[in-house]
Design goal:
The complex is a heterotrimer of chains A (about 160), B (about 500) and C (about 120). Chain A has about 160 residues and is mainly α. Chain A has helices spanning about 5-10, 10-35, 45-60, 65-70, 70-95, 110-140. Chain A has one domain. The radius of gyration of chain A is 19 Å and the shape is elongated. Chain B is mainly alpha-helical. Chain B has a domain at about 275-490. Chain B is built from 20 helices and two strands. Chain B has helices spanning about 5-20, 25-55, 75-90, 100-105, 110-125, 130-150, 155-185, 190-195, 205-220, 230-235, 240-275, 275-295, 300-325, 325-355, 370, 375-385, 395-405, 410-435, 455-470, 470-485, and strands at about 55-60, 70-75. Chain B has a two-stranded antiparallel ribbon. Chain C has one domain (about 5-50, about 75-120): Helix Hairpins, CATH 1.10.287.3510. Chain C contains four helices and no strands. The radius of gyration of chain C is 21 Å and the shape is elongated. The chains are: A mainly alpha (about 160), B mainly alpha (about 500), C mainly alpha (about 120). The interface of B and C includes residues 143, 155 and 177 of B.
Chain lengths: ~160, ~500, ~120
């Protein structure tokens, strides 16, 4: 049996449709992300949608092509940066003399605007982490191969 | 300085991902050491404040409870926080050890990341005043501990971690169902609010079912006797340092949760008066004390032996709870503290043995008293604590348990506590006999004492002696927590 | 039967199917599937408890747009379940990672066969 990536290369419909489809998936992801503080949505949902778009790309065009778009190392850094952004907002409000994650203090003039900014930043952190972790999980499992082979340093069990 | 309250959890929680980025073995080690010691310092400061000026309440994000998430520190959980952070501060310097899978792959940072996450989760469970938060932090610590167990040097560690994951997740989900049903009855997740509203609906079946789910779920995490099967495998396959940390903190936090839900949230009157939890928990505790010790007698591996002994020791703690008296509860809480020291110390001794002998089988311990004198002496002292010999920490907790039994006018119960202690003599004597009265193999190479784990092991074992002789502090704090739980003045 | 009762029946049936699968199946992947089903049933338990008869999605409606007062469903269980879903995903990921490693070292994911291999080795 030929490798999956090779067989996928012959599926013209899948390739063409997904190529035109993925940008809209990503766009919708960003809409859900940044509209999340006004309506339904937020980091979790947006992160999963963006990750779904990229995972679709990886499934159609192969893992190697996907790794050129989003290197595996980026997903690890992204997962950490997102958590730290979330925690950083909390720590900042702590330093400003309020309670942990008290967004009111982020804007010294207008607490409402502070709330807005806080939610935006925290949800951005959540979105980055969720996207990164979802892609990372896909990479780790898909890159593992079917047969048993000795583990390498790149295979992380997390 | 109420700002210390969130820092207790936030410091290890945010340090864990940074540890993941550090990569280098030494950087990750030094960084996580600094983090656990800072966490320990915070817990010491918190306990000092609570003992000085009463409970602390902290509103996350400035949203006032009961609508926002509240972190609440009182005598009981400040004490547990101190134990968890203290054990982490002593255990972590031992490092992951060269035998484990993380070290073989050159990925020690995974160990440190998972360790810090587990610590953050356990501290979070203890400090939070929000029932749903309990579930979230419990799952954080559980997930991290599955990873930690899977780092063991044997391939069986994967299977042990997998069955631990299945059982642990069922336990966690049971707790989630219980919290959901309690929320359904009261419309609140804040523990204080729950405590105020649940007594009004105790005649409803949903409340009783909620309590049943919560109790079973916590009992799985606590390894109460018939639900203990995951524990021996997980503890015996994990790296010895991980076993030391988990045995000294994981089941202890679960015990704290049980105490919290039984006494502060549902109320002793409902739990013992209407539902008769003691009628179920007391026989199970006694069964755990005996069957755990008997199973330990028949083990051929040092780690498994200690793991089965843990089941017996959990039995003592739940026995104290099921007495529902100030003395019994004091015994349970002080045993939580003492057993954390003893079992943490003993598992660290095992880490020393494993580092030099590359084996934890009992037959390989022959003549160890001559080959590793300090290590073996530390093991014997820790073992005396498990038996409950006067002058060691274990004696203090058994003293209060016997007092609790006598208060119930149950000579039989007091007799059973003493009898089960004698079983500990049997399984520990086997090791003493092997280590001191049998000659090492003729071809055994001389070995040195272990490098990194010896000092932490000695610190914990010395602490069991210290708290066995100077009991005012540990027993005093446990007693004031018990009086408060039983509804007395703080 | 009224709506308020049969949703709990669905939850309980799903829960029992999940729990039974976890207990009865030897195959580790099937065990994880059972575990997922079990967790999903709890998510449904929470979601149904948040539903208010005639309630709408809890998004603020401008008062001028409606004549009668708006009834909202309770959003809290939904938010809680967002977290529970994440926990479920994490548990599944760790579980599957362990299954992959078990498959690589033992060559099987049947618990009985692993016990057999270990029995021979010991």
């Amino acid at each position: 049996m030929r490798p999956l990536a090779m067989r996928m290369r012959e599926k013209v419909v899948l390739r063409v449709v997904s190529r035109s489809f993925i940008p809209f998936v990503l766009l919708f992801g960003f809409y859900v992300q940044f509209h999340g503080d006004f309506g339904p949505g937020g980091g979790f949902q947006a992160g999963v949608i963006v990750a779904a778009g990229l995972i679709l790309y990886a499934m159609i065009f192969g893992l190697d092509a996907a790794r050129l778009v989003v290197p595996q190392r980026w997903t690890e850094i992204g997962a950490v940066v997102g958590v730290l952004l979330y925690g950083g907002v909390g720590a900042l409000s702590l330093l400003l003399g309020g309670n942990f994650l008290d967004y009111n203090l982020l804007d010294s003039h207008d607490p409402m605007h502070g709330q807005h900014l806080g939610i935006l930043l925290v949800e951005l952190g959540v979105g980055i982490t969720v996207t990164s972790v979802m892609i990372m999980i896909y990479y780790v499992f898909a890159g593992r191969g079917v047969g048993a082979r000795p583990p390498t340093a790149a295979d992380a069990e997390r | 300085m109420t700002q210390l309250v969130p820092l207790q959890v936030v410091i290890p929680l945010l340090a864990a991902p940074i540890c993941l980025l550090l990569r280098d073995r030494r950087y990750a080690y030094v960084f996580s050491l600094a983090v656990v010691w800072a966490t320990f310092a915070v817990s010491v400061a918190l306990l000092g404040q609570v003992l000085g000026s009463g409970p602390l309440s902290y509103a996350m994000g400035g949203w006032a409870p009961p609508f926002g998430i509240e972190y609440r520190v009182d005598t009981l959980n400040a004490f547990v926080l101190l134990i968890v952070a203290g054990i982490a501060a002593v255990v972590l310097p031992a490092g992951v050890g060269p035998g484990s899978r993380a070290a073989q792959d050159g990925r020690e940072y995974i160990f440190y990341t998972a360790f810090l996450l587990c610590l953050a989760g356990l501290l979070g469970v203890t400090i939070t005043g929000d029932a749903f938060n309990v579930f979230v932090f419990l799952e954080i610590s559980s997930l991290a501990s599955y990873v930690l167990v899977s780092l063991g040097d044997d391939r069986r560690a994967f299977v042990a971690a997998f069955s631990y994951l299945i059982v642990g997740t069922i336990g966690g989900t049971f707790i989630l169902i219980g919290i959901g049903l309690a929320y359904q009855m009261t419309g609140t997740l804040n523990m204080e609010d729950l405590a105020a509203r649940l007594p009004l609906v105790t005649d409803q079946r949903t409340t009783r079912v909620a309590f049943a789910f919560l109790t079973i779920g916590i009992a799985i995490k606590l390894a109460v006797f018939p639900l203990h099967q995951w524990l021996p495998n997980a503890y015996s396959q994990a790296p010895a340092v991980v076993s030391a940390f988990l045995s000294a903190t994981g089941t202890k936090v679960a015990y704290y949760l049980l105490v919290r839900f039984v006494f502060t949230i549902f109320g002793a009157g409902f739990v013992f008066g209407a539902l008769h939890l003691d009628a179920i928990l007391m026989p199970l505790s006694i069964a755990a004390m005996f069957l755990g010790s008997i199973a330990a007698i028949y083990q051929t591996d040092l780690k498994r032996l200690l793991a089965y002994s843990s089941i017996a020791q959990v039995g003592y703690m739940t026995l104290g709870l099921s007495m529902a008296s100030i003395d019994g509860l004091t015994g349970g809480i002080v045993h939580l503290f003492n057993h954390a020291l003893m079992k943490g110390g003993l598992f660290l001794v095992v880490a020393c043995v494993a580092e030099r002998l590359h084996s934890t089988r009992l037959v390989d311990l022959r003549g160890l008293g001559r080959r590793m004198p300090i290590t073996t002496a530390a093991f014997v002292i820790g073992g005396l604590g498990l038996i409950g010999v006067p002058g060691t920490a274990g004696f203090v907790s058994k003293w209060y348990l016997v007092l609790g039994a006598l208060e119930r006018d149950s000579i039989l119960l007091a007799f059973l506590i003493l009898l089960s202690s004698l079983l500990a003599v049997v399984y520990l004597w086997r090791i003493v006999e092997l280590a001191y009265f049998q000659a090492p193999d003729a071809d055994a190479a001389p070995i040195r004492e272990a490098s990194s784990s010896l000092i932490p092991a000695c610190v914990l074992i010395a602490a069991t002696l210290y708290f066995g002789i100077f009991t005012e502090w540990s027993a005093g704090v446990a007693r004031s927590a018990a009086i408060w739980l039983m509804g007395g003045p703080v | 039967m009224e709506l308020g009762v049969w949703n709990y029946w669905v939850v309980i049936i799903l829960m029992m199917i999940g729990l039974y699968t976890v207990i009865a199946r030897e195959n580790m992947i099937k065990k994880i599937m059972g575990l997922n089903l079990f967790q999903v049933s709890v998510i449904m338990l929470y979601i149904t408890m948040g539903k208010v008869d005639g309630g709408t999605a809890p998004i603020v409606v401008e008062a001028s747009h409606t004549a009668s007062p708006v009834i909202y469903s309770n959003p809290v269980p939904h938010v809680l379940m967002l977290t529970a879903i994440v926990v479920g995903v994490a548990v599944t990921a760790v579980g599957l990672a362990l299954v992959v490693r078990i498959r690589e070292t033992y060559g099987t994911i049947e618990e009985a066969e692993i016990a057999e291999i270990e029995g021979d080795a010991a």
